[in-house]
Write a sequence for this structure.
């Protein structure tokens, strides 16, 4: 089985790292639980998309300060790789590619392939059976593709995707990577 796994919000707690940076600069105390919408940084801090990208790029430049979303993620993905083809698939700025690779290696994240994309290419367009992602945009952008295929999107619950209610049949919420085994 071909399994795609997103980086930000599924493997790496990029939001937590970005909040640390912004909280320090703006003397605020937001946590991941406060991030109730996908555009939280732009809407709450009144920053542009470019500024948000710069914040995330800065976090990736300091990749050692980014925590794993779940402490057991490296062992879990290693176990998945024994019997599946695991592809790390992420929409990221090219500037961050080398830092993402360093982060994955440092945290002993094994994978069979790495696909780093700009936002114009849908992750589900790749030859994968299951995509594990946290992005509400991935749900919205992929509704047609999911309906016309046997692919499955496992939506990793995060506060910023909790408002999505009408999920297509091929989209299932999970609270933890440990739930993935039920769908393989």
């Amino acid at each position: 089985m071909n399994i795609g796994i997103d980086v930000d919000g599924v493997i790496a707690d990029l939001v937590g790292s970005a909040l640390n940076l912004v909280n320090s600069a703006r003397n605020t105390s937001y946590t991941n639980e406060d991030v109730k919408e996908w555009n939280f940084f732009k809407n709450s801090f009144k920053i542009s998309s470019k500024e948000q990208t710069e914040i995330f790029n800065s976090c990736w430049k300091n990749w050692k300060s980014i925590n794993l979303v779940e402490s057991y993620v490296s062992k879990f993905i290693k176990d998945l790789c024994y019997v599946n083809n695991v592809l790390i698939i992420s929409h990221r700025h090219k500037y961050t590619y080398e830092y993402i690779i360093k982060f994955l290696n440092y945290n002993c994240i094994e994978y069979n392939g790495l696909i780093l994309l700009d936002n114009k290419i849908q992750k589900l367009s790749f030859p994968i059976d299951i995509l594990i992602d946290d992005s509400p945009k991935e749900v919205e952008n992929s509704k047609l593709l999911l309906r016309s295929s046997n692919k499955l999107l496992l939506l990793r619950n995060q506060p910023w995707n909790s408002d999505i209610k009408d999920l297509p049949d091929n989209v299932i919420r999970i609270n933890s990577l440990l739930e993935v085994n039920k769908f393989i």
